[in-house]
Amino acid sequence: MLKKFFRFLIFVLILLETEYAVFVYAADTKGGKILNVSKNSAEDINSEPINIDNADITLSTVSYVYSGKACQPEVKIICNNTALISGTDYTVSYQNNINAGTAFVIITGNGNYTGSVKKTFSIVRREASSVKISPVPLQIYTGKKVKPSLKLTYASKVLIKGTDYTMTYTNHVKPGKGTAKVKVDFKGNFSGSRSVRFSILPGKPVLKTSVSASAVRLEWNKVSRAGGYSLPPQAERFFVGLSGRNC
């Protein structure tokens, strides 16, 4: 004896121009009652991934100034009048996006989308005015070229001589107040130049003293190119209460 009721699946294809829908339902053979209906588009059931090569892809920013940090512009994609979702429809990666130059965004299709597109953006060099240059300490005359080192920093990062800048010295032999100069020419991630002046003092003489009951004798070595000599404050104690030629 056949069962009183049984269910079966009926697949009905309804053609509409180039698209079609698929209806799947279970029917009661006695009452003809539809028990369940589900509908899916043909694209969802049997479609090929869409290539994003011809999609409209824009970057939130196409030019940055070097900051020492990774630059990551946001990506917006419109494909077939549909806004794609990052992480679902595509993934994003970056190349050469820290130092000054040309950086890249690589967009790769995901899920229902395929293909890969590379977009470019620029990172321009930072101006020299952004760099902090520490003051040059007083230098002592040696008879030779005086070349003090410099400390240059940007955003707590110490710049490297030869990589980030070069230096050229002028008037850096003879003693003088603020007459010596070093020019800093920037390179790499920085642009422009800066000049810093510094002072070269005459060499410091070595002072010798001798004291007797009748005189105080001071001696010091001759310093090349010195225009004169003056006593340091600590030497004044030897002359307290003294008078005459010996002073």
Give an overview of the whole structure.
The structure is a single chain. The chain has 247 residues and is mainly beta. The chain has 4 domains: 7-45, no CATH class; 50-124, Immunoglobulin-like (Sandwich); 128-201; 207-239, no CATH class. The protein is built from 1 helix and 23 strands. It has one helix spanning 42-45, and strands at residues 7-16, 19-28, 34-41, 50-51, 56-59, 63-65, 75-79, 82-83, 90-95, 101-109, 113-114, 116-124, 126-127, 132-133, 139-140, 152-154, 157-158, 165-170, 176-186, 190-191, 193-201, 207-211, 216-220. The strands form 8 sheets. A 4-stranded mixed sheet has the order 6-12-10-9, with no helix packed on it. A 4-stranded mixed sheet has the order 15-21-19-18, with no helix packed on it. A 3-stranded antiparallel sheet has the order 1-2-3. A hairpin with a 2-residue loop joins strand 1 and strand 2 (19-28). The longest helix is centred in the N-terminal third of the chain and has 4 residues, at 42-45. The termini are far apart. 12% of the residues are buried. The model is unreliable at 1-30, 32-45 and 243-247 (pLDDT under 50).
